[in-house]
Write a structure and sequence with these properties.
The structure holds two protein chains of two kinds. Chain A contains no helices and eleven strands. In chain A, strands 2, 4, 5, 6, 9, 10 and 11 form a seven-stranded mixed sheet that branches. The termini of chain A are far apart. Chain A is 0% helix and 49% strand. In chain B, the strands form three sheets. In chain B, strands 2, 5, 6, 10, 11 and 12 form a six-stranded mixed sheet that branches. In chain B, strands 3-9-8-7 form a four-stranded antiparallel sheet, with no helix packed on it. Chain B has a two-stranded antiparallel sheet with strand order 1-4. By secondary structure, chain B is mainly β. Helices cover 0% and strands 50% of the residues of chain B. In chain B, 33% of the residues are buried. Chain B is built from no helices and twelve strands. Classes of the chains: A mainly beta, B mainly beta. Chains A and B meet through strand 4, strand 5, strand 9 and strand 10 of A and strand 5, strand 6, strand 10 and strand 11 of B.
């Protein structure tokens, strides 16, 4: 079974540009989460999808961030326009929506550098 | 207040020794889950072990065990017989509320473990 995949693995952009990150969850996982780790700080929650619906977006830092999950499969996280403080590693995680487990399985992350 | 506290930024341990990574948590919710993840230098986050707040026994997964002391609100990770491949960053995380509740994870700042040959 394939794990959570994320694309790209690295992205270097200039301030003011747009970047779109993609996450493919484990097949069949209805829950999809985005997290971010800014250099030297803890990993922080951004938002949670259940299928295509946003269940919790309380961690989204501002309206420059837009997450979508059309069709309830893969998800994209767009940053527009990017700022220097958006640099960090963006993780995606997924989990099944059942009572047996709530373990979130993480992807390898996308390292975003804004210059 | 920090919800997850990992007080050891870095640890050096001799190969084959046991190691304990500390984690304390803060929540008023009676239902919660505690997780440990490993992040090697390659960057991926690997799930290690889970402990539910209502679980009667400490969780174990191979060489990993979780020393869960509910009254002290601690959930330390114990790695027995450490190996060179255990060198990595380790994160403690908590999910507050029952399943289908507030499901986001709150993470600690991590502990960087280095195993010395």
């Amino acid at each position: 079974e394939a794990g959570v995949t994320q694309f790209p693995s690295h992205s270097v952009i200039e301030k003011g540009q747009t970047v779109t990150l993609r996450c493919d969850p484990i097949s069949g996982h209805d829950n999809l989460y985005w997290y971010r780790r800014v250099m030297g700080k803890e990993i922080k929650f951004l938002l949670h999808f259940v299928k295509e619906s946003k269940q919790d977006e309380s961690g989204m830092p501002n309206n420059r961030f837009l997450a979508e999950r059309t069709g309830g499969t893969y998800s994209t996280l767009k940053v527009q326009p990017a700022e220097l403080e958006d640099s960090g590693v963006y993780f995606c995680a997924s989990s099944p929506r059942d009572m047996e487990t709530d373990t979130q399985y993480f992807g390898p992350g996308t390292r975003l550098t804004v210059l | 207040a920090q919800k997850i506290t990992q007080t050891q930024p870095g640890m050096f341990v001799q190969e084959k020794e046991a190691v304990t990574l500390d984690c304390t948590y803060d929540t008023s919710d009676p239902s919660y889950g505690l997780f440990w993840y490993k992040q090697p230098s390659s960057g991926e986050m690997i799930f290690l072990i889970y402990q539910g707040s209502y679980d009667q026994q400490n969780a174990t997964e191979g060489r990993y065990s979780l020393n869960f002391q509910k009254a002290r609100k601690s959930a330390n990770l114990v790695i027995s017989a450490s190996q060179l491949g255990d060198s990595a960053m380790y994160f403690c995380a908590m999910r507050e509320g029952g399943r289908y509740g507030n499901e986001k994870l709150t993470f600690g700042t991590g502990t960087r473990l280095t195993i010395i040959p």
